[in-house]
Design a protein that fits this description.
- With 82 residues, the protein is mainly alpha-helical.
- 71% of the residues lie in helices and 0% in strands.
- The longest helix has 43 residues.
- It is elongated and about 65 Å long.
- The protein starts with a helix and ends in a 7-residue tail after the last helix.
Length: 82
């Protein structure tokens, strides 16, 4: 009985560690893809955008994709968040 418990505990810890590594790798890939293609996405959504993506353009893109594009004009005067 004790050996089975040790085996299960070892398998659980191994699975947990591998799962965390997989999630970290996936998060890195998503972040990289976002950084690479965010400018192209902004232009294809109709935003006049060049250079690195800024917070205001990102917020406007989020509102548009969420179906809340009518709120974009309300965010134009918002101060920059730090």
């Amino acid at each position: 009985m004790g050996a089975a418990f040790l085996l299960v505990a070892g398998l659980f810890l191994t699975a947990r560690q591998r799962g965390r590594r997989a999630v970290q790798a996936y998060a890195l890939l998503v972040e990289t893809a976002t950084r690479l293609h965010a400018g192209d996405l902004a232009r294809s959504l109709g935003f006049d955008h060049t250079g690195p993506l800024d917070a205001r353009t990102g917020q406007a893109m989020t509102l548009l994709v969420q179906g809340q594009g009518h709120l974009i004009p309300l965010t134009v005067g918002c101060p920059r968040q730090r």
